[in-house]
Amino acid sequence: MMNDVENEVEEQQAEDEYVNRVPELKLLSEDIDKATNTFINATLELESAIQQYQRAEAKLGGAVTTISKKVDTINQHIDKVLENAPTKLKVTVNVNDADWKKIQELFAKERQWMTAQMQTHIREVNSMLADERKKVRDRYKEYDGCYLGHYAQWFFWLFFTIGIFVVAGGVGVMIAKNFGK
Questions:
Q1: With the C-alpha atoms ordered 109, 110, 112, 116, is the resulting torsion angle positive or negative?
Q2: Taking the alpha carbons of 139, 143, 146, 147 in that order, is the dihedral positive or negative?
Q3: Confidence bin at 88 (pLDDT 50/70/90)
Q4: Closest CA to 143 of 33, 49, 27, 68
Q5: Best exposed site among 1, 67, 156, 177 by fewest CB in 10 Å?
Q6: CA angle 13, 19, 25 (to 5 degrees)
Q7: Cα 139–Cα 145–Cα 149 angle in degrees, nearest 5
């Protein structure tokens, strides 16, 4: 008889210890959930940033290719001008001052035209780079993770509330079992 009483007292003490540890376990569970969610959010943000970087890198590669083609065109034009310049200017004639001035004016006009062409190409390249920069900036604003973060937050709150109800139900069932006898 005494042995049964001691066993019941020990069982009651063990149950009290479990009931007393429920808040600690609840806090530990919440901390684990918070750490898990923080890790998931950080991972999602990192993946989003990597995808944005890859898209920007691809766009930049396309812009560099376009610029390279423009520069090649400019270089080819300069090479043609330099190739033809010695043959066109290789003239051994007597030139009077009026003709010499006309030649100088034509040369100056050709040089101005070539400078204008190069400036036009440079403006086009600068305009393309500025447009690409604006597109990348707008794309970054559009896909900065806000939408994904919003959905992830709703996902987290859904499972958090379900978890709270499950834990509260479990505690209620334990209390009902212990005090319902």
A1: positive
A2: positive
A3: low
A4: 49
A5: 1
A6: 130
A7: 155
